């Protein structure tokens, strides 16, 4: 029997029917959650209490994802995003939600996960650390994309879940002096002969001025460098080039390093562009002050600060008179932290380099301590906490940027005889889904 070829339908191009769903809550990434035919449906852009018109874009066994088409019944928490780039830019994801509602959501999400996995109760909650909702970022990295046919360079942020660079002229969460540099920089970079070899642009607002770091993949010609130098003078900024080896070349007068102060100017910390520092200056200052209050350092105590960076917590702790040991996994940051200790004349502050996910039993700094501070990345501090029995701190302050890993690690602390005493929300990143928190644990046995 003859058989005839019949093309299979292209299912990837088939669109699902339009649905009307009731949104119940937000997930940890700020997307709305609804239910349809026994499945959880994630709807970015929708808010709890809203009825939304959506179209399914992906279906799995237990969940589905949908594109928001329209809000049929809005919630009072919905607001009009003021940023003209909001619908395309992937930098913020909650501008459509009033700031007060954002913070209520973050507090509820933190409390829920800590109650579920760590047995935390609402009576342990501290007053949230909240600040300005706009123009709070003192640092940002803008991406570039060069289009060969038009020979133009796009400067901006990447779209959500995409490598596409969205051109922006301003950023409403970036410090205003930095936001004002974006459009002029875009014009300048497009005048350079070597614009096709440019990488990202990092903008920094420090206590000692504005800094811009331009990543280059090939050496620029003198004419391009001259244009950049003149621009730096006109804008009153410190401008640096960074090559493939991570080396810096200053195109403006002097060679200052960006720095910021803590403890009302009692501690000053320098940092190298590209290394991690908290981007929200106001909240970082208050966060450090709260950590000092909760940990209550005293002269004669030995305090260990793991994931210490350039000394954001270590130096203020040492300034209170305690003997402080900071440990960091990035060698360059350890070098800078040591320089900061010397510059602040903190002889009671010592820094070590170490892989905090590895076996720590043979480390020179490992041993009995009085108090412990942890400020890990999103993955948390699970491996480091396996050495609690050897360290035996009376108090532990855990600063977290991921409630899920904090809840998991809280289980380790509870099993080792610690009790959760305080839990506080830190709204480090308004207009985004990101949740930071601080927890205090005390040894009870």
Summarize the structure in words.
By secondary structure, the protein is an alpha/beta fold. It has three domains: 16-78, Beta Barrel (OB fold (Dihydrolipoamide Acetyltransferase, E2P)); 104-132 and 280-443, Vaccinia Virus protein VP39 (Rossmann fold); 139-250, OB fold (Dihydrolipoamide Acetyltransferase, E2P). Helix content is 22%, strand content 30%. It contains eight helices and 22 strands. It has helices at residues 99-118, 176-189, 222-235, 281-295, 314-319, 331-343, 388-391, 403-415, and strands at 18-22, 25-26, 32-36, 39-43, 51-59, 63-73, 139-147, 152-158, 165-167, 198-206, 209-216, 238-242, 248-250, 259-262, 267-270, 302-306, 323-328, 349-353, 371-374, 395-400, 418-426, 436-443. It has a seven-stranded mixed sheet, covered by helices on one side. Strands 18-17-16-19-20-22-21 form a seven-stranded mixed sheet, sandwiched between helices. The protein has a six-stranded mixed sheet with strand order 1-5-6-4-3-2, with no helix packed on it. Strand 7 (139-147) and strand 8 (152-158) form a beta hairpin. Helix 1 (99-118) packs parallel to helix 8. The protein starts with 17 loop residues before the first strand and ends with a strand. 40% of the residues are buried. The model is unreliable at 1-13 (pLDDT under 50).
Total beta strands: 22
Report strand order across the widest sheet.
9-8-7-10-11-12-13
CATH fold topology of the largest domain = Rossmann fold
Assess the beta-strand content as a share of residues: 25-35%
**Ends apart, CA distance between termini:** 82 Å
| Main beta-sheet strand count, sense and barrel state | 7 strands, mixed
**What integer value in Å does the Rg equal?**
25 Å
Return the CATH architecture of the largest domain. Answer: 3-Layer(aba) Sandwich
Unreliable runs: 1-13
Helix content estimate: 10-25%
Contiguous helical run count = 8
Overall mean pLDDT score?
A: 94
- Domain count: the total is 3
The CATH fourth-level homologous superfamily of the largest domain: Vaccinia Virus protein VP39
Overall geometry = flat
What is the H/E order? EEEEEEHEEEHEEHEEEEHEHEHEEHEHEE
> What structural class do the secondary elements suggest?
alpha/beta
State the name of the first-level CATH class of the largest domain: Alpha Beta
